[in-house]
Amino acid sequence: MSFQLYYNYGQSVGAAEMQLLVDELGPPTVLWRAYYNEGNQWLKAVIQLGRLPHPFQLSLDKISLGFYDGVSAIDDITFENCALPPPALSCEGPSHFWCRDTKACIDSLLVCDLVDNCGDGSDEDNCTWKANFGNIYTIVSIR
């Protein structure tokens, strides 16, 4: 999902935040927040949501400093790459993975990446995760 444009301007504009509420899955999650005056200009923001298998709601909430002297707005919200891959008649080769129930053929690099790329969860089944806390944090998938 991306906001083509967002605007947070004014002397005491406070903050604006976008929250995600997934039906039946608990309290809202803050996805994005713009703090204070960001100038008299429209800016772009991109949020990676991944595929959401449940109905959801987005809300834009205003956090005030006690009085309003500013404007917050979002325009041109775009959802991209939301559809599942189509079913395939075959899926051959080591660089592909055939999804169990949806029969989609996806790139094997998408297997065990913490995202349900198949829509049936089969690309995330039987994955073991190991964290390496050295100088750089990495997640390694072992299949």
UniProtKB/TrEMBL annotation:
Keywords: Disulfide bond
Domain (MAM): residue spans on this chain: 1-84
Record-annotated disulphide pairs: 112-127
Gene3D superfamilies (UniProt xref): 2.60.120.200, Low-density Lipoprotein Receptor
GO cellular component: membrane
SUPFAM superfamilies tied to this protein: Concanavalin A-like lectins/glucanases, LDL receptor-like module
UniProt xrefs under InterPro entries: ConA-like_dom_sf (IPR013320), LDL_receptor-like_sf (IPR036055), LDLR_class-A_CS (IPR023415), LDrepeatLR_classA_rpt (IPR002172), MAM_dom (IPR000998), MAM_domain-containing (IPR051560)
Cited Pfam families: Ldl_recept_a, MAM
Record protein name field: MAM domain-containing protein
